[in-house]
Design brief:
Length: 261
Amino acid sequence: YGKRILAAVTPQVTEAQCGGFYLYGDVSWCNRAFDGSHGEALLGLSYGIEERDIWSELISQKKLRTKLYDCFIPPERSTPISGKAPNGTRACAGVENKPCYTAQYESYRICLGAEKKKIDGRPFENLLPHLRDLPPLSVHLKIDTEGSEWAVLDQLMRSPEDWDRIRTLDMEVHFGWNNAGNPESVKHEAPKDRLGREVKVLERLLEKFHCTGSTLEVYRQGWNPQDNCKGGSCNEPPVYLPGGFSVEMFAVSYVNKELVN
């Protein structure tokens, strides 16, 4: 599975096709998605905020409104979730020392999952209703939800009209993780079956999207098993490449093929 994961996130789209790339932190954006050559996006949806969400701040600098979702982080620990970040009141000077939003944002104490329900008192909602009635290529989407992404993406790809609404996708992937927002059938899967299903979802993303980059190369440069795992202290990851390099978790970016083809 490790080799298939690597192949699925190795970019094939060129710098010329994208009109260049914008790289910051975990994102690798194709400039075509933002240059107005194929219309304009309307909205940024970000799932998994924690204390600060640089992704939605960057989208906000494109003068796009954003909606932020996280039901785990206590509001007192998260300026954007508590609603205390500058909210469309001034132009932010790039990524500032504290959270800042050039365009207006809304925050919700809601998590992303396969279906609408409460789990341990926390509300979960599915992605598709959040996309309802939006036009094609109108949404920049970020998902960092600690393992619920696979069921959510599978549902998205089964709804062609909703899949067409996604302009760019940025996410942190987690292979083999069992998230509270997953369907019950997934929670009880054998680990190997779960991993195989997740890899298939990753590969199917390439039907609609070009991968524009990932953090795997950065992680590889910092990977030194002789130092990182002295005395054999590292646990075996659920999925890895020949040689032992883990591909269990990393960030990856995509652009809709309609923007570059």
